[in-house]
Design brief:
Strands 1, 2, 3, 4, 8 and 19 form a six-stranded mixed sheet that branches. A four-stranded parallel sheet has the order 12-11-10-16. The chain has a three-stranded antiparallel sheet with strand order 5-6-7. The protein contains eleven helices and 25 strands. The relative contact order is 0.15. Helix 1 packs parallel to helix 9 and helix 1 packs parallel to helix 11. The two termini are about 25 Å apart. It is an alpha/beta fold and about 400 residues long. It binds flavin-adenine dinucleotide. The site of flavin-adenine dinucleotide has 33 residues, from helix 1, strand 3, helix 2, helix 6 and helix 9.
């Protein structure tokens, strides 16, 4: 591994891009493991100082207060540095990262964790007329609009889990509004029949009109147009469908998949640039069951694994392969109801599910857990290094 030689001593600079669920896990885990080493410098770069709990953005979008979590405060005492800034370019050959205020940050090892966002380019008009949950600021804009509406229709585009959670939350918080959930698939399509039926009944109880088998082809200032030619009037459109990742990895010449995610080897290193690790939603990580889809449950382990691999490599050892098996899909249905589908490691549904208030408590526990987990990892890094490895589903993945 290359290092920077300064005044007779060498420092290995690890730069982590993105302080989402995965990047935070990487930064805290790595900083805790190298705290006593003066020859390793850990720097975390993120657009904001405040940690965005994406799992709560549908709450923010309905005017609910969520905790202010400060990334620099969490890193305090770990030895890791925090840089606030917007990454504008990665030069993977020169091993530098450019920030929007003209700063240039050199690295020896890069951890790429810039996450993902709703795909706003897929349908004309989304960019100009739809709201998203891509950031806390976007969610706050939606909250302000919903609060002043009084009456009318909110169309939620995309019947995936973010769409379901958002539609339920808006209907519960704003019973004065009509909420229409539109998507190709049925809400809860990937769940077992009992969980799916529960989820759909909960949406009906909240007054959400869910329409599946429909394709939104255009978003206009006051309506959406469907492929069938039908037009649905809407005061507000929230777009949750599809995901896209930052174009920076592809522009840097890293090997990416068809969705722009960094293709990794078994140890989470870029297949084209092994001094770059990719974690979370921004990475295309292959397991025995296929390429992992982006979640917080899988993203945090990728960050921890990248950190452990960097420490192993610095010690002259080989990093171990990453293995991860999914175990649950918790979906909130407003604040007092939820459904938790337990899954096999390949994310297919098991027969077991939780519903109702117990499920709502389970979901809240899961949602609240990342931040305390980072806090514990500062003192006991091994406490964050447990997750299901997926057994036969992930064995001999490649
Ligand atoms: C409403 C909602 C509910 C969800 N519920 C669940 C759930 O229940 N369970 C689950 O497992 N997953 C859930 N997800 C998905 C989950 O949030 C993502 O999979 C997870 O956030 C991915 O983590 P990450 O660290 O890869 O990226 P992110 O959490 O997106 O973090 C990326 C970070 O990088 C920063 N960044 C991006 N670009 C730049 C740049 N150019 N310069 C500087 N900083 C940059 C961003 O500001 C952000 O801080 C939900 C998502 C949403 C939107």
């Amino acid at each position: 591994m290359s290092t920077q030689r300064e005044a007779g001593r060498t420092t290995h600079r690890v730069l982590i891009l993105g302080a989402g669920y995965a990047g935070m896990a990487a930064a805290v885990q790595l900083a805790a493991r190298v705290r006593r080493r003066e020859d390793v410098q850990v720097t975390l770069v993120n657009a904001q100082e405040r940690f965005t709990e994406r799992l709560r953005l549908h709450m923010t979008a309905t005017g609910q207060r969520v905790a202010e979590l400060s990334i620099p405060e969490l890193l305090d005492g770990t030895g890791a540095q925090f840089v606030r800034g917007w990454v504008t370019a990665v030069d993977a050959d020169a091993k530098i990262v450019r920030i929007d205020d003209d700063r240039v940050l050199p690295y020896d090892t890069l951890v790429y964790g810039l996450g993902s966002a709703a795909d706003m380019a897929a349908v004309p008009g989304v960019e100009d007329h739809a709201y998203t949950l891509n950031s806390a600021q976007d969610a706050e804009l939606l909250a302000a609009r919903l609060a002043q509406l009084g009456s009318g229709t909110v169309v939620v585009g995309g019947s995936g889990l973010t769409g379901v959670e958002s539609a339920a939350e808006i209907a519960e918080r704003h019973p004065e509004l009509n909420v229409v959930l539109l998507g190709r698939g049925e809400p809860g399509a990937a769940m077992n029949p009992k969980a799916k039926a529960y989820l759909q009944a909960a949406l009906r109880r909240l007054g959400v009109q869910a329409r599946s088998g429909v394709e939104v082809v255009k978003v206009l200032p006051d309506s959406v147009e469907l492929a069938s030619g039908e037009s649905i009037a809407a005061e507000v459109v929230l777009w949750t469908s599809g995901t896209r990742v930052s174009p920076l990895a592809a522009a840097a010449g890293l090997t990416v998949d068809e969705r722009g995610r960094v293709v990794t080897d078994a140890a989470l290193r870029s297949v084209s640039h092994p001094d770059v690790y990719a974690v979370g939603d921004a990475a295309a990580i292959r397991q025995g069951y296929g390429v992992m889809h982006g979640t917080c449950q899988g993203g945090m382990p990728t960050g921890v694994h990248a950190a452990v691999s960097i420490v192993r490599t610095l010690a002259g050892k080989q990093p171990k392969p990453f293995r991860f098996g999914f175990y649950h899909t918790p979906v909130s249905l407003g604040r007092h109801d939820a459904v938790v589908q337990f899954t096999r490691p390949d994310d297919s549904p098991r027969r077991v599910c939780l519903t109702g208030r117990l499920a709502a408590r389970y979901k809240e526990t899961v949602t609240a857990s990342p931040w305390p987990t980072y806090g514990r990892m500062k003192k006991m890094p091994a406490s964050g290094a447990f997750w299901p490895h997926g057994g036969r589903f992930t064995r001999e993945a490649r």
